[in-house]
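chain below, 325 aa
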Amino acid sequence: MTDGPSTAGGEGAGREPLDPATDALVGEVRSLIERLRLPTKLLKPAPPVLPVTPAAPAAPALPVNLEEAVFTTPVAPEAPAAPAAPTAPEAEPGFAEAPAPGLDPLLEPSWLRVAGELDGTLARSLAHVRRAGGGRLPEGSKALLRLAATELARARDRLRLVMLLLDDGRVLEDTPLQAVVDAVLAAWEPTLRSRGVALRRRGGVGLRVRVDADGLRTALFELVRNAFEAMPRGGTLSVAVRRGEDGRAVIEVADSGPGFSPEALASAFTPFASPKPGRLGVGLALASRVARRAGGDADAANPPGGGARVTLAIPASGPEQPTLS
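prediction:
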């Protein structure tokens, strides 16, 4: 996720002075955000040295409640769907995920406990900031508290991704695959339309998998985010759900952006190795882990027609009704 605007440096100029209680609360918020960044840096392996590329134009900020919508949306039963647009021709195989070792098993439980405690602290602080922002304060103080609340919410989202990545003990449950995909796309559709990104879907009603449903929903949300950010001037996002030739359930997320660089493709599923400045580098790694925990795997490729494509293949636990949407 992208970081919000910083208030560091010159923050005392041109605004009303804060009362001592609000000033202390803002300081505590900044301290918590720095504490969140520390474990991430300690967990992060040294990434390969990448060539410096010009910075891309800043993407418009996503709605603050976009993550909330998908994280809290219950999986709805499948509904009959309409015929879909024709699919692209079969692409050449891309970079297949290597069986890389996980994070140090001796460290994972400890970091998971630390992350859980920090999440509780962030939740309490966010509640305090929101309550304080609703009080009778100068407008300058309220603006700072709104910024602090946004940063705390984003910090919790980052921490949630790390916790899902570290937790190999999550429960697998029988899940209607199309319903999970539909929940994610429903949360993203207004934002995609606002940028001129056309959404093409193809799905099979009735295809089920035994998987960590929350982890899969979050991973798909991040895959769509990656595709969205790769198309700053609009394009096409294609999401397909089908049964593969080997009988497994397959989810494909493809965009019409510039595709993966060779360096990004080589480290696609490595945690905390994003070549993008300011990014956590967890989305693809989480998608891979969710698929692996369910007995599947992940693949990233640049299809011959252009763009980027990520494919998850997971053992199916139920029959597929060949309905297109």
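The chain has eight helices and eight strands. The helical segments are 20-43, 66-72, 108-133, 139-166, 177-195, 213-229, 262-266, 283-293.
thats it, cya
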